[in-house]
Amino acid sequence: MRNDSSFIELKARERARLLLDDGSFRELLDPFEGIVSPWLEAQGIVVQSDDGMVVAKGTINGGPAVVIAIEGAFQGGSMGEVSGAKMAAALELAAEDNRNGIPTQAVLCLETGGVRLQEANLGLAAIADIHAAIVDLRRYTPVIGVVAGTVGCFGGMSIAAALCSYLIVTREARLGLNGPQVIEQEAGIDEYDSRNRPFIWSMTGGEVRFQSGLVEALVGDGVNAVKQAVNEALAKGVPAKHRTDNYDWYLDRLNNFDTTKQADSEQIKQLFGEKRA
Amino acid sequence: MEHITLSFPATRTVSGKALAGVVGSGDMEVLFTATQGDTLTIAITTSVDNSEQRWQALFERLGALSSLPAGQMQIHDFGATPGVARIRIEQVFEEVTHA
Amino acid sequence: MSQKLNRAAIWLDKLTANAPRMAGLCASVQVADGTVDGKAARFIAVVPDENNHYPRAKGGEVGLLEGWTLAKVVSETIAEDADSAEKRAIVAVIDVPSQAYGRREEAFGIHQALAGAAAAYANARLAGHPVVGLIVGKAMSGAFLAHGYQANRLIAFNDSGVMIHAMGKESAARITLRTVEALEKLAATIPPMAYDISNYETLGLLSALLDIASPEAPESADMDKVNAALVTAVREARTDNTLKNRLNAKNRQSSALVRERMRAAW
Q: Within a 10 A sphere around the Cβ of A276, how many other Cβ atoms?
């Protein structure tokens, strides 16, 4: 789309501002409140005032909404105690709103490597809280996830993405459970070459995830394109079935796959069927 | 990692708050809250050790070029070059001036 | 079908008095019905299977088949109890070393498979099933998120064979460019980074920490302790289908503070 400025280049705060209706952005627990990580200082790591998580209330198409955006530039977008609690708390309050008749919508901008190792078990526990909150909230209103890049969405947060009602990605994005280096370390370079970028995108990039039916929308890198996809997803409402409900379909495909063959683009297409042209 | 506190005479007042930058490699986050009075106090947390002199020099240069506003500044620095540091500080000053 | 006996397999047997395993599942997911507090309860374990159809999940890791099979079993349990006033308890018996790492795993969406499991357990809890996580060995990263972390109550053994963490020591050491020894030394001073169960307990995520004399060959006193802890956990779970009971520890006070401040500003 011409004249549609880059979404990927925007920091988290700007992404949240632009996804909300003009002028409706109101940040909660903003940087000036200074609720930072209690664990990083002792390890000689410089904190960020919002702990890398922006929570903003406002409206989307006039309806109440909260946008929760991860700042991928701070510690790789990794989830610490405070950043994880900010996302979980916002989702929990949105669910409470819905139970009280306020139809608060939720959009998550996911740019994260997963758990922040410097806060390990508190990051992991916060991610479990986020999973719980998404499953709760998505009964009332669709939870929209946006993975745009350049960090992508990995680790326990890729599970959070997979719990979302609808996922929107760009071609630059990646969505996968384990980081490429960890797979290479655990399984060897023949199994996964972490420095082979085309290979990595062919396994976990936005385009292949869209073709595999693991995400619902693939958009170009543009603010308007992303906004439009978010609005279209919200308009669809709560899906009759979430991807997580399709266990029988996935088990059937996975059980019948010939695992003497390694996975490649052709095998991926065969496993999932070619859902998109 | 170091904590540095600096203080400079301020010769103008503005109002409001402003934020610029992120704590990414080679960047820094600056928060500024305008106050009344005649002092700009700056609290810096930086990943770069032994850098107090450079920060002192940076603010002296900025103060020589244009008057510093009164208020409290918080910097979380992850190795910003003097050029990047200056850009971030000027960004927040510009934002409050136009508030 | 063949499997090594890991702690989860051992405890599944003991807790269900060797009840028959549910048929029709992959061999790495073992399900048996027993009782807690005299009432029907379903016990679920993920165990090693050296003939796993997906070779990267042979060692008891939670992989593609395990994630989706957990989703299936738990979802069908919810459906079976849909018309019951009192939902049966579901006990996740946990000794999982990690998620499965591999090319097929990534390509075929292991992140989605684990989400299937997490969603099913969360749905069960929301529907009123008491879901209890019994950590008898390892409860690591994505595997634990899928199998156990959505439980109302978490019980762990106070034992050096129990490890709960986001990443194994070797990988974590490599990624943070340290030796394992240096990582362990640092981790011991920072509770959320530590690998031992005593430090984990200070985070306030467990409802019980049990001293078990013989975790790999349980004696009757051990069984009594575990059964009593399960009864307490199930009774408590019936009064609360949220994860709020995990927010009471000093070492997790920022998590409570964030919620309080966000509610006030909402």
A: 11
Domains assigned to chain C: 7-265 (3.90.226.10)
Task: For this complex, say whether ipTM is above 0.85.
Answer: yes
Assign domain A12-175+215-244 to its CATH architecture: Alpha-Beta Complex (3.90)
Which of A93, A135, A164, A208 has the most C C-beta neighbours within 10 Å, making it the best mutation to test the interface with C?
A: A135
Task: Identify the bridge partners of residue A115 per DSSP, sorted by sequence position.
Answer: A79
Q: Which of C74, C5, C73 is nearest to C216 (CA)?
A: C5
Report the domain count for chain B: 1
How distant, in Å, are the alpha carbons of B68, B90, B97, C28, C39 from that of B34?
11, 14, 10, 62, 65
Chains B and C touch (3+ CB pairs under 8 A): no
b/e sequence A172-181, b meaning 16+ C-beta within 10 Å = bbbbbbbbbe
Q: Give tens-digit pLDDT for A235-271.
A: 999 999 999 999 999 999 999 999 998 899 999 999 9
Contact A123 C105 (CB under 8 A): no
Asked if the Cβ–Cβ distance from A244 to C71 is below 8 Å, we say yes
Burial class (CB in 10 A: 0-12, 13-18, 19+), B17: middle
